[in-house]
């Protein structure tokens, strides 16, 4: 009588499954190992009313009663972050020595800044600067140069906003007078910043979104666009294919 091979085949499959289940797992590459815990370092700096980010870090700005600068990140990264004050401006960047830049960082770096009196915020490079609460001041200047991003709620009599390059700026709050300028392909998103009057200028292919109540003086050179909300009296000067429109 011919013996069935099915039981033998079933046993073989069970043995293969067991061998696979108990196969040891090879350790992952060094990059998969858990990184060291972040360190927090409070910096002692002089008094400042302006904050500039130069590099690719993240800066979080808060307005409060006491000035403070705190750097958070991997220990070897934190020591490479430079925080200096010159003529009332806090500059956040990297230590200037051969071969060192933000590209060498082992992980994300955040710098928490508390300012008492604010006059200006700026980003130079590809960094990200944003505010945690509404920033107030008499006259506030906000600027982006490069491909960075700046986001801030503002309450000021006068706001001067400029983007040079491909960067982006997002503003909300209110102001009596807004000056908005874009040079390049960047954007100013200020549809939630209520302004009484505004002068807007675009040179290149950039865009502005505004919210103006009384008067808007718009200038475009190139293919950029200015979009506005509200019912202001509009004066427009366009050279190129750009346009000024409500929307």
Automatic annotation (TrEMBL):
<feature type="domain" description="Putative auto-transporter adhesin head GIN">
    <location>
        <begin position="47"/>
        <end position="232"/>
    </location>
</feature>
<feature type="signal peptide">
    <location>
        <begin position="1"/>
        <end position="21"/>
    </location>
</feature>
<protein>
    <submittedName>
        <fullName>DUF2807 domain-containing protein</fullName>
    </submittedName>
</protein>
<keyword id="KW-0732">Signal</keyword>
<dbReference type="InterPro" id="IPR021255">
    <property type="entry name" value="DUF2807"/>
</dbReference>
<dbReference type="Pfam" id="PF10988">
    <property type="entry name" value="DUF2807"/>
</dbReference>
